[in-house]
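Regression test case RT-17, inverse folding.

Input:
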């Protein structure tokens, strides 16, 4: 029998070998996105950016700036007032199994075991598969997140961190072209959050998964992201109402193989962190005086 670490390594290698090599090409393109619940005061306007294949992008900003709305539009769960979103040269017009989503709440079915929760998603993706094929696939992704010993437990028997691992395994198990993460670690304690951050970073690097993630945590964004999108809030100014939008896009120049433990020792870390914090304090809310 393999140890848990060996099982996880084997699972990652198997997953990686089944995927085509990714190149850094434009994969997701957002053009002129806006959302308004009140016509004269859009939450955000003219949001445009692109994400390369295999890139990890975080979006950060104050509550109410429209981060979750942007993610929901990418997921096909909401529609924009104007603008377009294209993934792999096709316009996004609704939900699709090509995009896996992990929310802050684990969203597991409480009456099903870990195995069956993930199998439900796998069968939705590949309805023609036999039960044996589904089971092998499920076990591979459960091993990837280190939960093989808990595969036949129900959510009530799992800790918060374990539930989130199941959610991550379920999202990866449908092998989406893009992974969308809506503050998936926000409800976890600091130690558990840090552990899962490290695990997610390892999985994403090894599978070359394209990721778009919402976070309020500056250090989390710096640890995980290749680029960080900083959003402003809509606000009343002396010139009138100014809608929210992208204030700045920051490229993370820290070494790719960074870890939580060494993050604050890296040259440039404090400059990058101070720049983002300064933006959030002084520039994210244009209607406020500083």
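Golden output:
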């Amino acid at each position: 029998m393999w140890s848990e670490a060996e099982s996880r390594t084997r699972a990652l290698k198997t997953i990686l070998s089944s995927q085509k090599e990714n190149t850094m090409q434009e994969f997701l393109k957002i053009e002129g996105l806006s959302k308004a619940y009140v016509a004269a005061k859009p939450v955000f306007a003219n949001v445009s950016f692109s994400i390369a294949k295999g890139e990890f992008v975080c979006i950060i900003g104050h509550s109410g700036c429209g981060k979750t709305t942007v993610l929901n539009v990418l997921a096909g769960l909401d529609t924009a007032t104007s603008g377009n979103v294209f993934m792999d040269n096709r316009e996004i017009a609704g939900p699709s199994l090509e995009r896996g989503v992990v929310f802050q709440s684990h969203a597991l079915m409480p009456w099903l075991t870990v195995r069956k929760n993930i199998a439900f998603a796998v069968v939705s993706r590949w309805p023609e598969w036999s039960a044996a094929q589904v089971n092998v696939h499920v076990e591979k992704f459960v091993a990837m997140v280190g939960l093989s010993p808990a595969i036949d437990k129900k959510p009530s028997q799992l800790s918060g961190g374990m539930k989130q691992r199941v959610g991550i395994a379920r999202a990866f198990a449908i092998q989406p072209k893009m992974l969308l993460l809506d503050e998936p670690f926000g409800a976890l304690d600091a130690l558990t959050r840090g552990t899962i951050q490290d695990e997610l970073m390892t999985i994403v690097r090894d599978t070359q998964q394209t990721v778009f993630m919402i976070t309020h945590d500056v250090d989390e964004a710096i640890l995980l992201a290749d680029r960080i999108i900083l959003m402003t809030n809509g606000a009343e100014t002396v010139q009138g109402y100014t809608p929210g939008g992208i204030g700045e896009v920051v490229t993370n120049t820290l070494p790719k193989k960074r870890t939580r433990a060494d993050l604050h020792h890296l040259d440039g870390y404090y400059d990058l962190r101070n720049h983002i914090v300064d933006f959030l304090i002084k520039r994210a809310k244009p209607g406020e005086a500083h």
